[in-house]
Structure formats: structure tokens, C-alpha cells
Design brief:
The protein is mainly α and about 80 residues long. The chain is built from 4 helices and no strands. The longest helix is centred in the middle third of the chain and has 26 residues.
């Protein structure tokens, strides 16, 4: 779970650095490769948002008042 939160934070500077001509010179990523990398980063962002919504936020829409599975796993669920 921690890696899912850290990965998007590290992708942005990595893509910016590797596609910078000023920083990388002739070894910089092409526009096509940089565009593909940004698309992949966008998919990672969306997947992590989905993970956050399904695992960390309470299941309000179901009306059952159940704790999310991840919180029960790490022992943060409310004591009954």
C-alpha cells in the first residue's frame, strides 16, 4: 500500500527529468516516449485513486456501515 502512494510521487520528476533536453542532452526521451510515459503515469494515478476510494474510504454508499477491508487487515477498524 505504501508503494502505491509513493509511485505517483516519483513518476512525475522521473518523467520530467528524462524528457528534459537541458538536463539529459542527446539522451533525453523522445516526445513519443515521453507522451507514452505520461499516459502510463496517468493510468497509475487513476488506479491509485481507485484503490484509495475502495480501500481507504468508508463504504458510505452501501449503507451497511462496514469498515473497508484494508483497515480491518491492519487492525484500524473500530472496536465493537
Amino acid at each position: 500500500m505504501v508503494l502505491a502512494l509513493q509511485l505517483p510521487v516519483t513518476l512525475v520528476p522521473l518523467i520530467k527529468a528524462t524528457s528534459s533536453r537541458a538536463l539529459m542532452g542527446p539522451h533525453a526521451s523522445s516526445r513519443l516516449l515521453a507522451g507514452a510515459a505520461w499516459c502510463c503515469a496517468g493510468l497509475v494515478f487513476v488506479a491509485n485513486l481507485g484503490l484509495f476510494v475502495t480501500q481507504l474510504l468508508p463504504q458510505v454508499s452501501s449503507g451497511r456501515g462496514e469498515e473497508p477491508v484494508l483497515l480491518e487487515y491492519v487492525g484500524w477498524a473500530r472496536c465493537k
